[in-house]
UniProtKB/TrEMBL annotation:
<dbReference type="InterPro" id="IPR001478">
    <property type="entry name" value="PDZ"/>
</dbReference>
<dbReference type="Pfam" id="PF13180">
    <property type="entry name" value="PDZ_2"/>
</dbReference>
<dbReference type="GO" id="GO:0008236">
    <property type="term" value="F:serine-type peptidase activity"/>
</dbReference>
<feature type="region of interest" description="Disordered">
    <location>
        <begin position="433"/>
        <end position="464"/>
    </location>
</feature>
<dbReference type="GO" id="GO:0006508">
    <property type="term" value="P:proteolysis"/>
</dbReference>
<dbReference type="InterPro" id="IPR055210">
    <property type="entry name" value="CtpA/B_N"/>
</dbReference>
<keyword id="KW-0378">Hydrolase</keyword>
<dbReference type="GO" id="GO:0004175">
    <property type="term" value="F:endopeptidase activity"/>
</dbReference>
<dbReference type="Pfam" id="PF22694">
    <property type="entry name" value="CtpB_N-like"/>
</dbReference>
<keyword id="KW-0720">Serine protease</keyword>
<dbReference type="GO" id="GO:0030288">
    <property type="term" value="C:outer membrane-bounded periplasmic space"/>
</dbReference>
<protein>
    <recommendedName>
        <fullName>PDZ domain-containing protein</fullName>
    </recommendedName>
</protein>
<dbReference type="GO" id="GO:0007165">
    <property type="term" value="P:signal transduction"/>
</dbReference>
<comment type="similarity">
    <text>Belongs to the peptidase S41A family.</text>
</comment>
<feature type="domain" description="PDZ">
    <location>
        <begin position="90"/>
        <end position="158"/>
    </location>
</feature>
<dbReference type="InterPro" id="IPR036034">
    <property type="entry name" value="PDZ_sf"/>
</dbReference>
<keyword id="KW-0645">Protease</keyword>
Length: 489
């Protein structure tokens, strides 16, 4: 298993999401190709159309452009996440997983031929300008995005720092298009943020799963334990608006809270390389055989501290892997709303001249055998937030999305779910039955409170506005929530 993981170098990159797509780097050197029977009649038709374009199109078209667009169409017609990566797109993908790139700071996906905002990244030009989840970007500068591929749209949004770009967006409940002029910046995505909510209760927010997210999580948790005097009463892991990222980082984050060797996720596809079982062991989350196990630096109490995981409709891919693993092992209580449902694996297949194909090769399954694809993770306790009205795009809504599989039937390949779920009941002092809780905030939810002193009036007001975080704290403290119905699973 360890050797297979090293060979595949699997990653899951969210986003639902185009820029934020779920991937894994496959170190395929000399893959033996099976004998294929070519569809001669269809190839003849392709040649005929190619020739007609060359001879009759209103303007001359280079062969290279036609063939490239044919490849793009062949891949994008499969599902929303398969794509051809030219040199620039391949380079951007590699840079993006390192957490730094030049642009606006928007996680995007495709809808109805335009670009849809999944989530703006905090502390970026897009976030500061007021771009919101659910916005439909219809123009970049004066160029309409109708029919423009997602990768080409991303190229237009990225650029040199300090250069300006104008976005025209359609927003739900707005009669007229909105225009935003943004100044590009170097986007440094800090993937882990942490703070004390009140004495004994801490918040760790993971915004994206990057190369060093696991190590940064360890640092953040240790800081919280120091602030609390070496012991925590409860911890909130916030995965809302997290589009995904590297799979090994997701395995690392899950492993921080699970027993050693617990199954985190498994994949199933048509090939042997697509069938993997990733457990809470160093080989599955530390890149490099000679690197130390960063989880050894965690305080022992983190394995048992009462834990709540916050999710919403923009929690995708690697976020769903973490939420699903902690839920199946009954290690955490999941609070929020149904997640995005990005449960497919993309393999990066290198091509000559620093190009690549991003191809969907497998589906993800939680330790208990649930398929994530087009379904997502259902929270244990549904707490709706006003901001959810702006998050309407999910995997099942995407054109050509890969269908999920019936949970009861299980995967069709050789991968098997865990034989026994490790760990006890979900931690926390509140009710353990799945509940639906509705807390109506005044105005839009603002996200995490900025102040750290719970006695500060401003901090109290900010915390009230984040109804899901407030529900998580109340649950950990055993305080009652406003519930409207109980549901069973």
């Amino acid at each position: 298993m360890a050797n297979k993981f090293k060979q595949a170098g699997l990653v899951a990159l969210g986003a639902a999401l185009g820029v934020a797509a779920s991937l894994h780097f496959s170190a395929v050197a000399d893959r033996q190709m099976s004998t294929l029977s070519l569809p001669v009649d269809d190839l003849r038709l392709f040649s005929e159309v190619f020739g007609r374009i060359k001879s009759d199109y209103v303007e001359p078209v280079e062969d290279k452009k036609l063939l490239k667009e044919a490849i793009n169409g062949m891949l994008t017609g499969l599902d929303p996440h398969s794509a051809f990566l030219d040199q620039e797109a391949y380079r951007d993908l590699q840079v993006g997983t390192q957490g730094e790139f030049g642009g606006l700071g928007i996680e995007v996906g495709a809808e109805e031929g335009f670009v849809k905002v999944v989530a703006p990244i905090e502390d970026t030009p897009a976030y500061r300008a007021g771009i919101k989840a659910g916005d439909l970007i219809v123009k970049i500068d004066e160029t309409s995005l109708k029919g423009v591929t997602l990768s080409d749209a991303v190229k237009k949004m990225r650029g040199k720092p300090n250069s300006e770009v104008k976005l025209t967006v359609m927003r739900k409940d707005e009669a007229q298009p909105l225009e935003f002029t943004l100044r590009r910046d170097v986007i440094r995505v800090k993937s882990v943020k942490a703070r004390m909510l009140e004495p004994g209760y801490g918040l760790v927010r993971v915004t994206q799963f990057q190369e060093h997210t696991g190590e940064n999580l360890v640092t953040a948790i240790n800081d919280l334990y120091k602030q609390s005097g070496g012991e925590m009463k409860g911890l909130v892991l916030d995965l809302r608006l997290n589009p995904g990222g590297l799979l090994n980082a997701a395995v690392g984050v899950s492993s921080a809270f699970l027993p050693k060797n617990a199954l985190v996720v498994y994949t199933d596809g048509r090939t042997d390389d697509a069938r993997m079982r990733l457990t809470a062991t160093k080989e599955n989350y530390v890149r490099g055989a000679f690197k130390e196990d960063y989880l050894n630096k965690l305080p022992a109490g983190v394995k048992n501290v009462p834990l709540v995981v916050l999710v919403n409709g923009a929690s995708a891919s690697a976020s769903e892997i973490v939420a699903g693993a902690l839920q199946d092992h009954k290690r955490a209580t999941i609070i929020g709303t149904q997640t995005f449902g990005k449960g497919s694996v993309q393999t990066i297949l290198p091509l000559p001249n620093n190009q690549a194909v991003k191809l969907t090769t497998a589906r993800y399954y939680t330790p208990g055998g649930r398929s994530i694809q087009a379904k997502g993770i259902a929270p244990d306790m549904v707490v709706e937030d006003a901001s959810e009205t702006r998050i309407v795009l999910r995997e099942a809504d995407l054109q050509h999305h890969l269908a999920g599989e019936d949970d009861a039937s299980g995967p069709k390949g050789n991968a098997k779910p865990v034989d026994k779920i490790i760990a006890g009941p979900a931690t926390g002092k509140g009710a353990t039955a799945p509940l639906i809780a509705k807390t109506a905030p005044k105005g839009d939810a603002k996200g995490d409170a900025k102040a750290t002193d719970p006695k500060d009036a401003a901090a109290k007001d900010a915390k009230k506005e984040d109804v899901q975080l407030n529900a998580a704290i109340n649950f950990l403290k055993g305080q009652p929530l406003t519930t409207t119905a109980a549901v069973t699973k």
